[in-house]
What we know:
InterPro entries: B30.2/SPRY (IPR001870), B30.2/SPRY_sf (IPR043136), BTN3A2-like_Ig-C (IPR053896), Butyrophylin_SPRY (IPR003879), ConA-like_dom_sf (IPR013320), Ig-like_dom_sf (IPR036179), Ig-like_fold (IPR013783), PRY (IPR006574). This protein is α+β, with helices and mostly antiparallel strands. It contains 4 helices and 24 strands. The chain is elongated.
Amino acid sequence: MVPDAVLPCSVRVQGPARENGGADGGVPGKNNLCERSYQQRERGADHTQRHSPRKRHLPLLFPRRQILRRGHHAPDGGSWSLSPGVGSKPVIEMTGHEDGGIRLECTSVGWYPEPRAVWRDPYGEIMPPLEEAYTTNADGLFMVTMAVIIWDQSVRNVTCSVNNTLLNQEKETVIFIPESFIPSTSPWMVALTVILPSLLVLIAGTICLIKKLQMEKKILSMQIEVENEEKEIARKELGKERVEKEKERQIKEQLHEELRWRRSLLHAADVVLDPDTAHPELFLSEDRRSVRRGPSRQSMPDNPERFNCQPCVLGLENYSSGRHYWEVEVENVMVWAVGVCRDSVERKGEALLVPQNGFWTLEMFENKYRALSSPEKILPLKERLRRVGIFLDYEAGDVSFYNMRDRSHIYTCPRSPFSGPLRPLFRLGSDDSPLFICPAFTGAQGVTVPEGGLVLHRAETHRSLQDQFPRLRAK
Length: 475
Protein backbone atom coordinates (compact mmCIF):
# COMPACT_ATOMS: atom_id res chain seq x y z
CA MET A 1 0.00 0.00 0.00
CA VAL A 2 1.47 3.41 -1.06
CA PRO A 3 0.97 6.01 1.75
CA ASP A 4 -0.79 9.30 1.10
CA ALA A 5 1.32 12.40 0.46
CA VAL A 6 1.12 15.67 2.42
CA LEU A 7 2.00 18.83 0.46
CA PRO A 8 1.75 22.47 1.65
CA CYS A 9 -1.17 24.29 -0.02
CA SER A 10 -2.23 27.98 -0.12
CA VAL A 11 -5.69 29.10 -1.32
CA ARG A 12 -6.59 32.53 -2.61
CA VAL A 13 -10.31 33.31 -2.21
CA GLN A 14 -12.34 36.15 -3.75
CA GLY A 15 -15.18 37.02 -1.39
CA PRO A 16 -15.65 36.21 2.29
CA ALA A 17 -13.47 33.37 3.44
CA ARG A 18 -15.17 30.39 4.98
CA GLU A 19 -13.97 29.31 8.33
CA ASN A 20 -14.70 25.70 7.69
CA GLY A 21 -11.75 24.10 5.96
CA GLY A 22 -13.92 21.26 4.67
CA ALA A 23 -16.13 23.73 2.82
CA ASP A 24 -13.08 24.80 0.78
CA GLY A 25 -12.41 21.22 -0.23
CA GLY A 26 -9.63 20.55 2.33
CA VAL A 27 -9.77 18.01 5.12
CA PRO A 28 -7.35 18.32 8.04
CA GLY A 29 -5.13 15.33 8.31
CA LYS A 30 -1.65 14.13 8.96
CA ASN A 31 1.25 14.80 6.56
CA ASN A 32 -1.09 15.28 3.56
CA LEU A 33 -0.74 18.88 2.24
CA CYS A 34 -0.11 20.12 -1.34
CA GLU A 35 0.85 23.57 -2.53
CA ARG A 36 -1.98 24.90 -4.68
CA SER A 37 -3.64 28.11 -5.70
CA TYR A 38 -7.41 28.33 -5.50
CA GLN A 39 -9.88 31.08 -6.28
CA GLN A 40 -13.65 31.18 -6.00
CA ARG A 41 -16.37 33.78 -5.77
CA GLU A 42 -18.82 34.06 -2.92
CA ARG A 43 -22.16 33.02 -4.25
CA GLY A 44 -25.08 34.46 -2.23
CA ALA A 45 -27.69 37.12 -2.17
CA ASP A 46 -25.23 39.97 -2.33
CA HIS A 47 -23.02 38.56 -5.11
CA THR A 48 -22.40 42.01 -6.63
CA GLN A 49 -20.38 43.09 -3.62
CA ARG A 50 -16.64 42.77 -4.34
CA HIS A 51 -14.18 41.66 -1.74
CA SER A 52 -10.42 41.91 -1.94
CA PRO A 53 -8.69 38.60 -2.43
CA ARG A 54 -7.18 37.03 0.65
CA LYS A 55 -4.56 34.33 0.89
CA ARG A 56 -4.76 31.57 3.46
CA HIS A 57 -3.12 28.22 4.03
CA LEU A 58 -5.43 25.22 4.31
CA PRO A 59 -4.57 21.60 4.88
CA LEU A 60 -5.86 19.65 1.85
CA LEU A 61 -5.93 15.91 1.78
CA PHE A 62 -5.47 14.01 -1.49
CA PRO A 63 -4.44 10.45 -1.97
CA ARG A 64 -0.85 10.08 -3.17
CA ARG A 65 -1.89 8.30 -6.35
CA GLN A 66 -4.27 11.13 -7.21
CA ILE A 67 -1.70 13.87 -6.59
CA LEU A 68 1.08 12.39 -8.70
CA ARG A 69 -0.88 12.23 -11.94
CA ARG A 70 0.55 15.13 -13.85
CA GLY A 71 -1.81 17.13 -16.03
CA HIS A 72 -4.94 16.37 -13.90
CA HIS A 73 -6.94 18.74 -11.76
CA ALA A 74 -8.13 18.44 -8.20
CA PRO A 75 -11.79 17.48 -7.62
CA ASP A 76 -12.80 21.10 -6.90
CA GLY A 77 -11.09 22.50 -10.05
CA GLY A 78 -7.74 23.46 -8.49
CA SER A 79 -4.31 22.62 -9.95
CA TRP A 80 -1.22 21.02 -8.47
CA SER A 81 2.44 20.42 -9.39
CA LEU A 82 5.12 17.89 -8.44
CA SER A 83 8.28 18.82 -6.54
CA PRO A 84 11.71 17.33 -7.35
CA GLY A 85 12.40 14.12 -5.51
CA VAL A 86 15.14 11.53 -5.05
CA GLY A 87 14.37 7.90 -5.79
CA SER A 88 15.59 4.61 -4.48
CA LYS A 89 19.15 3.36 -4.31
CA PRO A 90 20.13 1.60 -7.57
CA VAL A 91 19.87 -2.18 -7.60
CA ILE A 92 22.44 -4.06 -9.74
CA GLU A 93 21.74 -7.57 -10.96
CA MET A 94 24.04 -9.96 -12.85
CA THR A 95 21.72 -11.58 -15.40
CA GLY A 96 24.29 -13.99 -16.84
CA HIS A 97 26.81 -14.34 -19.63
CA GLU A 98 26.21 -12.68 -23.00
CA ASP A 99 28.47 -12.31 -26.05
CA GLY A 100 31.47 -13.60 -24.11
CA GLY A 101 30.99 -11.16 -21.20
CA ILE A 102 28.87 -10.60 -18.09
CA ARG A 103 25.59 -8.69 -18.45
CA LEU A 104 24.74 -6.30 -15.59
CA GLU A 105 21.40 -4.51 -15.14
CA CYS A 106 20.81 -1.49 -12.88
CA THR A 107 17.33 -0.36 -11.76
CA SER A 108 16.17 2.60 -9.66
CA VAL A 109 12.63 4.02 -9.12
CA GLY A 110 10.87 7.04 -7.58
CA TRP A 111 12.77 9.90 -9.29
CA TYR A 112 11.38 13.24 -10.39
CA PRO A 113 12.18 14.81 -12.74
CA GLU A 114 13.91 12.42 -15.14
CA PRO A 115 17.33 11.61 -13.63
CA ARG A 116 20.72 10.99 -15.22
CA ALA A 117 22.14 7.50 -14.81
CA VAL A 118 25.65 6.30 -15.75
CA TRP A 119 27.95 3.28 -15.42
CA ARG A 120 31.52 3.84 -14.20
CA ASP A 121 34.54 1.54 -14.17
CA PRO A 122 36.95 1.25 -11.20
CA TYR A 123 38.82 4.33 -12.47
CA GLY A 124 35.71 6.51 -12.53
CA GLU A 125 35.48 6.56 -16.32
CA ILE A 126 31.98 6.48 -17.79
CA MET A 127 31.10 3.23 -19.56
CA PRO A 128 28.62 3.43 -22.45
CA PRO A 129 25.45 1.45 -21.64
CA LEU A 130 24.26 -1.36 -23.83
CA GLU A 131 20.64 -0.48 -23.12
CA GLU A 132 19.03 2.48 -21.34
CA ALA A 133 15.34 3.17 -20.63
CA TYR A 134 13.48 5.86 -18.66
CA THR A 135 9.80 5.22 -17.90
CA THR A 136 7.11 6.71 -15.62
CA ASN A 137 4.73 4.75 -13.44
CA ALA A 138 1.15 5.59 -12.58
CA ASP A 139 2.30 8.11 -9.94
CA GLY A 140 4.28 10.10 -12.51
CA LEU A 141 7.66 9.16 -11.04
CA PHE A 142 10.55 7.98 -13.20
CA MET A 143 12.14 4.56 -13.23
CA VAL A 144 15.51 4.09 -14.89
CA THR A 145 16.87 0.79 -16.21
CA MET A 146 20.37 0.35 -17.68
CA ALA A 147 22.34 -2.62 -18.90
CA VAL A 148 26.02 -3.11 -19.67
CA ILE A 149 28.24 -6.05 -20.69
CA ILE A 150 31.68 -6.45 -19.08
CA TRP A 151 34.23 -8.11 -21.36
CA ASP A 152 37.44 -6.84 -19.76
CA GLN A 153 38.69 -9.32 -17.14
CA SER A 154 40.57 -6.55 -15.34
CA VAL A 155 37.31 -4.80 -14.47
CA ARG A 156 36.30 -6.41 -11.15
CA ASN A 157 33.94 -3.78 -9.75
CA VAL A 158 31.40 -1.49 -11.48
CA THR A 159 29.38 1.47 -10.15
CA CYS A 160 25.83 2.43 -11.16
CA SER A 161 24.95 6.01 -10.15
CA VAL A 162 21.66 7.91 -10.58
CA ASN A 163 21.65 11.70 -10.20
CA ASN A 164 18.86 14.27 -9.73
CA THR A 165 20.25 17.23 -11.64
CA LEU A 166 17.86 19.72 -10.04
CA LEU A 167 18.66 18.78 -6.45
CA ASN A 168 22.24 17.78 -7.30
CA GLN A 169 21.73 14.60 -5.28
CA GLU A 170 23.06 11.23 -6.36
CA LYS A 171 22.64 7.63 -5.30
CA GLU A 172 25.00 4.90 -6.42
CA THR A 173 25.64 1.21 -5.95
CA VAL A 174 28.90 -0.68 -6.45
CA ILE A 175 29.02 -4.35 -7.41
CA PHE A 176 32.05 -6.62 -7.16
CA ILE A 177 32.37 -9.27 -9.85
CA PRO A 178 33.88 -12.53 -8.51
CA GLU A 179 36.59 -14.10 -10.60
CA SER A 180 34.52 -17.26 -10.88
CA PHE A 181 31.87 -15.32 -12.80
CA ILE A 182 34.35 -14.04 -15.39
CA PRO A 183 34.51 -16.44 -18.37
CA SER A 184 37.97 -17.90 -18.89
CA THR A 185 39.76 -17.23 -22.14
CA SER A 186 40.61 -20.29 -24.23
CA PRO A 187 44.07 -20.56 -25.86
CA TRP A 188 42.23 -21.08 -29.12
CA MET A 189 40.48 -17.79 -28.52
CA VAL A 190 43.83 -16.06 -28.00
CA ALA A 191 45.19 -17.60 -31.17
CA LEU A 192 42.02 -16.66 -32.99
CA THR A 193 42.33 -13.05 -31.89
CA VAL A 194 45.80 -12.97 -33.44
CA ILE A 195 45.10 -14.99 -36.58
CA LEU A 196 41.70 -13.52 -37.41
CA PRO A 197 42.90 -9.91 -37.96
CA SER A 198 45.77 -11.15 -40.12
CA LEU A 199 43.36 -13.30 -42.10
CA LEU A 200 40.99 -10.37 -42.53
CA VAL A 201 43.83 -8.16 -43.75
CA LEU A 202 44.90 -10.86 -46.22
CA ILE A 203 41.34 -11.28 -47.48
CA ALA A 204 40.92 -7.50 -47.81
CA GLY A 205 44.19 -7.24 -49.76
CA THR A 206 43.13 -10.07 -52.05
CA ILE A 207 39.77 -8.42 -52.67
CA CYS A 208 41.44 -5.07 -53.44
CA LEU A 209 43.85 -6.77 -55.85
CA ILE A 210 41.00 -8.57 -57.61
CA LYS A 211 39.00 -5.33 -57.88
CA LYS A 212 42.06 -3.51 -59.23
CA LEU A 213 42.60 -6.20 -61.87
CA GLN A 214 38.91 -6.12 -62.77
CA MET A 215 39.03 -2.32 -63.07
CA GLU A 216 42.12 -2.45 -65.29
CA LYS A 217 40.45 -5.09 -67.42
CA LYS A 218 37.32 -2.96 -67.66
CA ILE A 219 39.34 0.12 -68.63
CA LEU A 220 41.25 -1.86 -71.26
CA SER A 221 37.99 -3.22 -72.61
CA MET A 222 36.53 0.28 -72.77
CA GLN A 223 39.63 1.57 -74.58
CA ILE A 224 39.37 -1.24 -77.12
CA GLU A 225 35.67 -0.51 -77.52
CA VAL A 226 36.36 3.20 -78.05
CA GLU A 227 39.05 2.42 -80.62
CA ASN A 228 36.69 0.09 -82.45
CA GLU A 229 33.98 2.76 -82.39
CA GLU A 230 36.42 5.36 -83.73
CA LYS A 231 37.48 2.98 -86.50
CA GLU A 232 33.84 2.30 -87.32
CA ILE A 233 33.07 6.02 -87.36
CA ALA A 234 36.09 6.67 -89.59
CA ARG A 235 35.01 3.87 -91.90
CA LYS A 236 31.48 5.27 -92.07
CA GLU A 237 32.80 8.79 -92.66
CA LEU A 238 35.03 7.51 -95.44
CA GLY A 239 32.12 5.66 -96.97
CA LYS A 240 29.93 8.72 -96.57
CA GLU A 241 32.57 10.88 -98.24
CA ARG A 242 32.79 8.44 -101.11
CA VAL A 243 29.02 8.41 -101.44
CA GLU A 244 28.92 12.22 -101.40
CA LYS A 245 31.65 12.44 -104.03
CA GLU A 246 29.83 9.93 -106.19
CA LYS A 247 26.59 11.82 -105.68
CA GLU A 248 28.31 15.09 -106.56
CA ARG A 249 29.76 13.53 -109.68
CA GLN A 250 26.35 12.23 -110.69
CA ILE A 251 24.79 15.63 -110.06
CA LYS A 252 27.43 17.31 -112.19
CA GLU A 253 26.85 14.82 -114.98
CA GLN A 254 23.13 15.36 -114.64
CA LEU A 255 23.56 19.13 -114.77
CA HIS A 256 25.86 18.87 -117.77
CA GLU A 257 23.33 16.63 -119.44
CA GLU A 258 20.56 19.06 -118.59
CA LEU A 259 22.64 21.94 -119.88
CA ARG A 260 23.30 20.09 -123.14
CA TRP A 261 19.56 19.37 -123.37
CA ARG A 262 18.67 22.98 -122.69
CA ARG A 263 21.20 24.29 -125.20
CA SER A 264 19.89 21.86 -127.83
CA LEU A 265 16.28 22.96 -127.30
CA LEU A 266 16.43 26.59 -126.25
CA HIS A 267 16.75 29.33 -128.77
CA ALA A 268 19.33 32.05 -128.41
CA ALA A 269 17.62 35.34 -127.71
CA ASP A 270 19.07 38.36 -129.47
CA VAL A 271 18.80 40.71 -126.51
CA VAL A 272 19.33 44.44 -126.90
CA LEU A 273 18.59 47.17 -124.36
CA ASP A 274 15.55 49.44 -124.38
CA PRO A 275 16.74 53.04 -123.84
CA ASP A 276 13.23 54.21 -122.89
CA THR A 277 13.45 52.11 -119.70
CA ALA A 278 17.01 53.05 -118.67
CA HIS A 279 17.62 54.89 -115.40
CA PRO A 280 19.07 58.39 -115.99
CA GLU A 281 22.45 57.34 -114.55
CA LEU A 282 22.81 54.43 -117.00
CA PHE A 283 24.71 55.02 -120.26
CA LEU A 284 24.00 52.59 -123.13
CA SER A 285 26.43 51.79 -125.94
CA GLU A 286 25.56 52.59 -129.53
CA ASP A 287 24.69 48.97 -130.31
CA ARG A 288 22.67 48.83 -127.05
CA ARG A 289 24.42 45.59 -125.99
CA SER A 290 26.38 47.07 -123.08
CA VAL A 291 25.56 49.50 -120.31
CA ARG A 292 27.60 51.48 -117.79
CA ARG A 293 26.62 53.56 -114.78
CA GLY A 294 27.85 57.14 -114.86
CA PRO A 295 28.77 59.52 -112.06
CA SER A 296 25.70 61.74 -112.57
CA ARG A 297 22.18 61.73 -113.99
CA GLN A 298 21.43 62.47 -117.63
CA SER A 299 18.70 64.78 -118.75
CA MET A 300 16.04 62.38 -120.03
CA PRO A 301 12.28 62.55 -120.36
CA ASP A 302 10.52 61.01 -117.36
CA ASN A 303 8.33 58.67 -119.37
CA PRO A 304 6.23 55.97 -117.56
CA GLU A 305 8.50 53.16 -118.77
CA ARG A 306 11.69 54.59 -117.22
CA PHE A 307 13.12 53.52 -113.82
CA ASN A 308 13.65 56.64 -111.73
CA CYS A 309 15.15 55.13 -108.51
CA GLN A 310 16.46 51.66 -109.25
CA PRO A 311 19.47 51.81 -111.66
CA CYS A 312 17.84 49.29 -114.02
CA VAL A 313 17.27 48.85 -117.74
CA LEU A 314 15.12 46.25 -119.56
CA GLY A 315 15.62 44.29 -122.74
CA LEU A 316 13.72 45.48 -125.76
CA GLU A 317 12.05 42.15 -126.54
CA ASN A 318 9.42 40.53 -124.33
CA TYR A 319 8.53 36.84 -124.09
CA SER A 320 5.08 35.37 -123.50
CA SER A 321 5.87 31.74 -124.40
CA GLY A 322 8.63 29.34 -125.32
CA ARG A 323 12.19 28.73 -124.11
CA HIS A 324 14.83 31.45 -124.30
CA TYR A 325 18.49 31.80 -123.42
CA TRP A 326 21.05 34.63 -123.27
CA GLU A 327 24.43 35.28 -121.68
CA VAL A 328 25.80 38.32 -119.82
CA GLU A 329 29.46 39.26 -119.26
CA VAL A 330 29.90 40.51 -115.63
CA GLU A 331 33.61 39.92 -115.06
CA ASN A 332 34.74 43.38 -113.94
CA VAL A 333 31.47 44.68 -112.50
CA MET A 334 31.41 44.89 -108.69
CA VAL A 335 27.67 45.40 -108.11
CA TRP A 336 25.09 43.99 -110.52
CA ALA A 337 21.85 42.04 -110.87
CA VAL A 338 20.51 40.11 -113.89
CA GLY A 339 17.34 38.13 -114.53
CA VAL A 340 13.80 38.69 -115.83
CA CYS A 341 10.78 40.69 -114.73
CA ARG A 342 7.19 41.22 -115.73
CA ASP A 343 6.62 43.94 -118.30
CA SER A 344 4.10 45.48 -115.89
CA VAL A 345 6.41 45.93 -112.85
CA GLU A 346 6.45 49.20 -110.94
CA ARG A 347 9.32 51.34 -112.20
CA LYS A 348 8.92 54.36 -109.99
CA GLY A 349 10.33 54.31 -106.47
CA GLU A 350 12.52 51.84 -104.61
CA ALA A 351 10.77 48.60 -105.53
CA LEU A 352 12.37 45.41 -104.17
CA LEU A 353 13.58 43.02 -106.87
CA VAL A 354 11.78 39.96 -105.46
CA PRO A 355 9.34 37.46 -107.02
CA GLN A 356 6.44 38.95 -105.06
CA ASN A 357 6.95 42.18 -107.05
CA GLY A 358 7.47 40.38 -110.38
CA PHE A 359 11.31 40.11 -110.40
CA TRP A 360 13.39 36.89 -110.65
CA THR A 361 17.03 37.95 -110.33
CA LEU A 362 20.56 36.99 -109.29
CA GLU A 363 22.67 39.69 -107.56
CA MET A 364 26.34 40.36 -106.85
CA PHE A 365 26.87 42.73 -103.89
CA GLU A 366 29.78 43.10 -101.42
CA ASN A 367 31.54 40.11 -103.05
CA LYS A 368 28.58 37.87 -102.25
CA TYR A 369 26.10 36.27 -104.61
CA ARG A 370 22.45 36.33 -103.61
CA ALA A 371 19.22 35.05 -105.05
CA LEU A 372 16.89 38.00 -104.51
CA SER A 373 13.92 36.39 -102.83
CA SER A 374 12.10 36.87 -99.55
CA PRO A 375 14.18 36.18 -97.54
CA GLU A 376 17.40 36.53 -99.52
CA LYS A 377 19.41 33.38 -100.20
CA ILE A 378 23.21 33.65 -100.15
CA LEU A 379 24.81 31.33 -102.73
CA PRO A 380 28.11 29.67 -101.68
CA LEU A 381 30.02 29.99 -104.96
CA LYS A 382 33.66 28.95 -104.95
CA GLU A 383 34.88 31.22 -107.73
CA ARG A 384 34.01 34.64 -109.11
CA LEU A 385 31.48 34.70 -111.92
CA ARG A 386 32.57 36.05 -115.28
CA ARG A 387 29.77 35.06 -117.61
CA VAL A 388 26.23 34.23 -116.47
CA GLY A 389 23.71 32.33 -118.56
CA ILE A 390 20.01 33.07 -118.03
CA PHE A 391 17.52 30.33 -119.00
CA LEU A 392 13.80 31.08 -119.30
CA ASP A 393 11.14 28.38 -119.82
CA TYR A 394 7.87 30.31 -119.85
CA GLU A 395 5.44 27.38 -119.83
CA ALA A 396 7.34 25.60 -117.02
CA GLY A 397 7.59 28.78 -114.91
CA ASP A 398 11.36 28.25 -114.76
CA VAL A 399 14.13 30.85 -114.44
CA SER A 400 17.64 29.38 -113.94
CA PHE A 401 21.17 30.77 -113.80
CA TYR A 402 24.39 29.01 -114.90
CA ASN A 403 28.10 29.74 -114.73
CA MET A 404 29.01 29.58 -118.40
CA ARG A 405 32.74 29.29 -117.73
CA ASP A 406 32.40 25.72 -116.43
CA ARG A 407 28.71 25.16 -117.28
CA SER A 408 27.86 24.65 -113.60
CA HIS A 409 24.45 25.35 -112.16
CA ILE A 410 24.14 28.42 -109.91
CA TYR A 411 20.50 28.74 -108.87
CA THR A 412 16.94 28.01 -110.01
CA CYS A 413 14.15 30.28 -108.83
CA PRO A 414 11.13 28.59 -107.23
CA ARG A 415 8.80 27.73 -110.05
CA SER A 416 5.64 29.83 -110.39
CA PRO A 417 3.16 30.20 -113.25
CA PHE A 418 3.91 33.28 -115.33
CA SER A 419 1.25 35.68 -116.54
CA GLY A 420 1.86 38.44 -119.05
CA PRO A 421 5.02 39.14 -121.01
CA LEU A 422 8.48 38.89 -119.39
CA ARG A 423 11.54 41.01 -120.24
CA PRO A 424 15.27 40.66 -119.50
CA LEU A 425 16.42 42.83 -116.57
CA PHE A 426 19.84 44.39 -115.91
CA ARG A 427 20.83 46.44 -112.85
CA LEU A 428 24.15 48.20 -112.17
CA GLY A 429 25.05 49.39 -108.69
CA SER A 430 28.63 50.59 -109.37
CA ASP A 431 30.30 52.75 -112.01
CA ASP A 432 33.53 50.78 -112.36
CA SER A 433 33.02 48.70 -115.52
CA PRO A 434 30.31 48.15 -118.13
CA LEU A 435 28.09 45.09 -118.35
CA PHE A 436 28.00 43.30 -121.72
CA ILE A 437 25.19 41.26 -123.31
CA CYS A 438 26.64 38.46 -125.41
CA PRO A 439 25.10 38.68 -128.92
CA ALA A 440 23.54 35.70 -130.65
CA PHE A 441 24.51 34.67 -134.18
CA THR A 442 23.21 36.71 -137.03
CA GLY A 443 19.65 35.65 -137.64
CA ALA A 444 19.58 33.84 -134.29
CA GLN A 445 15.83 34.02 -134.07
CA GLY A 446 14.79 30.37 -133.97
CA VAL A 447 18.34 29.06 -134.32
CA THR A 448 19.43 26.42 -131.75
CA VAL A 449 22.44 27.12 -129.59
CA PRO A 450 25.50 25.05 -130.62
CA GLU A 451 27.04 22.57 -128.21
CA GLY A 452 30.14 24.69 -127.71
CA GLY A 453 28.13 27.64 -126.49
CA LEU A 454 27.81 31.11 -127.89
CA VAL A 455 30.97 32.88 -129.02
CA LEU A 456 31.19 36.28 -127.39
CA HIS A 457 31.89 38.91 -130.02
CA ARG A 458 34.19 41.37 -128.27
CA ALA A 459 35.08 43.42 -131.31
CA GLU A 460 33.56 46.45 -129.69
CA THR A 461 35.74 45.98 -126.58
CA HIS A 462 38.77 47.01 -128.58
CA ARG A 463 37.23 50.43 -128.91
CA SER A 464 37.64 53.00 -126.17
CA LEU A 465 34.92 53.53 -123.61
CA GLN A 466 34.34 57.00 -125.06
CA ASP A 467 33.64 55.45 -128.46
CA GLN A 468 31.20 52.95 -126.96
CA PHE A 469 29.40 55.47 -124.75
CA PRO A 470 29.24 58.79 -126.62
CA ARG A 471 26.81 60.23 -124.10
CA LEU A 472 29.27 59.50 -121.29
CA ARG A 473 31.98 61.32 -123.30
CA ALA A 474 29.71 64.26 -123.78
CA LYS A 475 29.16 64.48 -120.03
